[in-house]
Write a structure and sequence with these properties.
With 229 residues, this protein is α/β, with parallel strands linked by helices. 25% of the residues lie in helices and 24% in strands. The radius of gyration is 16 Å and the shape is globular.
Length: 229
């Protein structure tokens, strides 16, 4: 598997993502600068990492979405390429139009940094994952919102990738770190090849980091790509 990580001014999880992808695929991830106009040839996955691209000015992800490289990422996705956006990366993918909805200020109006529990959705892309995963979050604008028709459509199509849940596996207000509608922590595109999620799997992808639940998610994505190749 050949992967790449896009880097913007203000990205702060790009190296973490590159290391995690390298561990999963067995080969180094390419680092792609936001002013580049083309992606490396032969890519299987493009990752948009977390951080504060362009200082979150105007609106989170809005300036990064206008970077030259995002036109190439959009074209890559249109050709059926796999794209993963984590935290700020999800914000960028929404602003680029690759995923629906919007990500607003946390309901508490405070930055949140803690572990959360996630329940994977029923989409085949996520098949085989445990019923509950512990993954860290670290964000200020992670409240996913959309109109009721969009939310219903995502649920009906199995495109809600992850829900925030409590220890019993149930969505609840106490388990929701940001007030996201319907406890949504991540969504998939129509074809299941673009995934945006607020929690950071790359931050819990090695036992030395305190757990490997994040590695399970990345392993599953790579397995999906291998099956589709």
């Amino acid at each position: 598997m050949k992967t790449a990580v896009v880097v913007f001014p203000g990205s702060n999880c790009d190296r973490d993502m590159a290391v995690a992808l390298g561990q999963v695929t067995g080969r180094p991830a390419a680092m792609v600068w936001h002013k580049d106009t083309a992606l490396p040839e032969g890519l299987d996955l493009v990752a948009i990492p977390g951080g504060f691209s362009f200082g979150d000015y105007l609106r989170v992800g809005a300036i990064a979405a206008q970077s030259p490289i995002m036109r190439a990422v959009s074209d890559f996705a249109a050709r059926g390429g796999h794209v993963l956006g984590i935290c700020n990366g999800w914000q960028v993918l929404i602003e680029t139009g690759l995923l629906p909805g919007a990500l607003m200020r946390n309901a508490t109006l405070k930055f949140v940094c803690r572990d959360v529990l996630l329940r994977p959705g029923p989409h085949p892309v996520l098949a085989g994952l445990p019923a509950s995963l512990r993954i860290p979050v670290a964000h200020h604008d992670g409240c996913f919102v959309a109109d009721e028709a969009t939310l219903d459509g995502l649920e009906d199509a199995g495109r809600i990738a992850f829900h925030y849940v409590d220890a019993d596996g149930r969505p609840s207000a106490a388990a929701n770190p940001n007030g996201a509608l319907r406890n949504i922590a991540g969504v998939l595109s129509d074809n299941g090849r673009v995934l945006g999620m607020m929690p950071h799997p790359e931050r819990l992808s090695d036992a030395a980091l305190g757990g490997t639940d994040g590695r399970l998610i990345l392993d599953r994505l790579v397995a999906t790509m291998a099956a589709a190749a």
